[in-house]
Amino acid sequence: MINFSDMEKIDRNVYVSKETSNSDKEHLLTIINNSKNRVENLCGSVEADPVFVICNSHEDYTNFGMYKVDGLTVIYPFETFVIISPDGINENVISHEICHAELYERIGFFDDDEIPLWFHEGLASLVSHNQPKSFDGIKKIWNKRSKNGRVRIDLNEIASYDGFYGSPAILDLPYWRAALEVSRWYKISGKEGLLELVTSIKSNKDFESSYIMIEEKNLK
Questions:
Q1: Where would I find the beta strands (DSSP E) of the chain?
Q2: Domain limits of the chain?
Q3: Measuring CA to CA, how many Å separate 214 from each of 10, 119, 193, 218?
Q4: What share of the chain is helix, strand, coil (3-state, %, to 5)?
Q5: Three-class SS state of 81
Q6: What's the mean pLDDT when you consider all of the chain?
Q7: What are phi and psi of 11, to 5 degrees?
Q8: Which residues make Cβ contacts (< 8 Å) with residue 215, sequence separation at least 6?
Q9: Were both Cys, which of 4, 65, 80, 100 would link to 50 (CB 3.0–4.6 Å)?
Q10: How far is residue 160's CA from residue 131's CA, in Å, rounded to a whole number?
Q11: Could you tell me the strand order of the sheet in which 71-75 lies?
């Protein structure tokens, strides 16, 4: 129903708040393009074509049912939407959400449930340059946040939506734990391993066994 809203279309699949200035519109299109480049560097290409809903006012953001988060990717069988708040209009947030949309696109709506949430969030964190994107850099932050490992988070505990977002008091820790694991795996398996993992899941193979197999193969 985006075409029937008060949002203004400024490019294909890009809608902004009506009060957005012309200079801000141009800047926004540049941000989206740069964000797509980050995801392309991670995945090799960008196949997702989500609808961007960029809200320059919190009123517009709440009208779409959003609150608190800087951005959110919403998937339907017929379309994917990237909804961005006034606080999320930057490459870090938008590239993060495009990465979610890209994994959705490659896996498909009905197979995406096979992906644990820690992998979705960990992969998207690798293009969020407001934090270190390398395993070594993320490990340093994790050690600091987890008090040198005294705070432990098992990946199984953050595989589901409820598990990942279940404790607001430690909300950033699941993100760092996910980023730690996926950056470790990506350092070993690389872009080719990521694409192989997507192919395996689309071939109805189990995520966990495929994830382990690809890592072990690249360690040889």
A1: 8-11, 14-16, 51-54, 71-75, 80-84
A2: 1-109, 111-220
A3: 42, 15, 6, 6
A4: 60, 10, 30
A5: strand
A6: 91
A7: -165, 175
A8: 185, 188, 189, 193
A9: 80
A10: 23
A11: 8-11, 14-16, 51-54, 80-84, 71-75
Q: Which of 6, 200, 2, 32 is nearest to 106 (CA)?
A: 200
Q: Vertex 55, ends 51 and 56: CA angle to 5°?
A: 145
- Sequence length of the chain is 220
Q: Name every residue whose Cβ is closer than 8 Å to that of residue 156 and which is 6 or more positions away in sequence.
A: 163
**Residue with the two structure tokens 């809200």:** 55
Alpha-carbon distance of 210 to 136, in angstroms, equals 24
DSSP annotation of 172 reads: H
Confidence label for 195 from pLDDT (cuts 50, 70 and 90): very high
* Topology of domain 1-109, CATH: Zincin-like (3.30.2010)
Separation between Cα atoms, residue 220 and residue 216, nearest integer Å: 7
Distance CA 200, CA 202 (A): 5
Q: Which residue has the tokens 């294909």?
A: 12
Q: What is the pLDDT of residues 110-154, one digit of tens each?
A: 778 889 999 999 999 999 876 667 899 899 988 988 888 788 899
AA identity, residue 109: F
> Tokens for 56?
């320059």
